[in-house]
Amino acid sequence: MREALDEKTMLEIIDLAKESERKARETSELATSIALKYQQRM
Q1: First CA to last CA across the chain, in angstroms?
Q2: CA 27, CA 39: separation in Å to the nearest integer?
Q3: For position 34, what pLDDT does the model report?
Q4: Residue 8 in 3-state DSSP?
Q5: pLDDT of 1-42, one tens digit each?
Q6: How far, in Å, are 6, 36, 41 from residue 13 at the CA level?
Q7: Which residues, other chains included, contact 5 with Cβ-Cβ below 8 Å and sequence gap of 6+?
Q8: 3-state DSSP call for residue 6?
Q9: How far from chain centre, in Å, is Cα 39?
Q10: CA angle 34, 36, 39 (to 5 degrees)
C-alpha cells in the first residue's frame, strides 16, 4: 500500500500545479491574441 504524501511534498505539487496553470493561461492568451490578429487580416 502506498504511503500518504507529507505536507512538504503536497505543497510542492500544489506550487507546480499553480505554475503550470499560469503558463497554460499565458499560452492561451497568446494564442487568442494571434488568432484575433489573423482574423482581422482576412
Answers
A1: 59
A2: 18
A3: 95
A4: helix
A5: 678 889 999 999 999 999 999 999 999 999 999 999 999 887
A6: 11, 34, 42
A7: 13
A8: coil
A9: 25
A10: 110
What the block records as the C-alpha cell of 32 is: 487568442
pLDDT at 40: 86
Residue identified by cell 500518504 is 4
Give the DSSP letter string of 18-38: HHHHHHHHHHHHHHHHHHHHH
Q: Please give the grid coordinates belonging to residue 29.
A: 492568451
Distance of alpha carbon 32 from alpha carbon 2, whole angstroms: 42
Q: Which residue matches cell numbers 504511503?
A: 3
CA 23 to CA 17: how far, in whole Å? 10
